[in-house]
Amino acid sequence: MATITVFEAGYCTHAGCMALRGAGMKVCRFPARAYLIETASGRFLWDTGYASHFIDATRSGLFAWYRRVTPVYFDEREAVVRQLGEHGIRASDLDAVILSHFHGDHIAGLRDFQGTPTWLSGEGWAATRSLKGIGALRKGFVPGLIPPGFESCATAVESFSRVELPAELAPFTHAYEAPGADGELFIVDLPGHAAGHLGAFVATASGWVLLASDAAWSPASYRELIGPSRLAHIIMDEPARYYDTLRMLNRLHRGGHVSIRLTHEGAL
Q1: What is the pLDDT of residue 231?
Q2: How far apart are CA 36 and CA 55, in angstroms?
Q3: pTM score of the predicted model
Q4: Whose CA, among 36, 49, 75, 267, lies 20 to 30 Å from 81?
Q5: Contact 205, 114 (CB under 8 A)
Q6: At residue 256, does pLDDT exceed 80?
Q7: CA distance 39 to 185
Q8: In the chain, what are the domains?
């Protein structure tokens, strides 16, 4: 069965109520996590967390507003490529980097994995790739984080086989089966938060895990159906679909068969 190794690559801070309605104005830390998924014959990196490239790209100019709105704290020792190296894994050892979506805190390390096959939502990338200036900033996309030749290494998950999921993963019924993952990794649409927002069902020895990315920022959101501040809707791709996804996570949680992990789950 697959194993999941969690890496924390920096964090940002924000008032708790922005992530969870009613949580108050206390400033909370929201870690940026990436996940190494290892199956019997494959290694896959889910997102990249923050990296020095993000600090460089948002140091000045228009995109400096990104860090003003959500202050970022990152130490180069936290870079995912460096943490992988401490586990004896090089970028070239990965079968693919899989992007849940294109916000800066999920793609900041892409330049450290230049040339590595990258899987993404083709629909989401089509909606994001040409964004520039204020349009990009409003969508949390920093074009300077995309490495040269990126598209030559990118594969849309929509090209993978779409398969039926086991009954215990209801209400989710279908997903894309990751090639070379021994039937232990399935990529699922979790729409609403960002264009092409994806999650991953991983079959581990202790049971199914859903890497739910930014479908919520606190477990209370899907457990109690409490959304973030309405101000957070400004950065959402489709708020109505976000709440549809949240309700699906609630049903999945109540089913009791799946452990849900959120990228930025903090102390809320």
Answers
A1: 84
A2: 23
A3: 0.97
A4: 267
A5: no
A6: yes
A7: 8
A8: 3-261 (3.60.15.10)
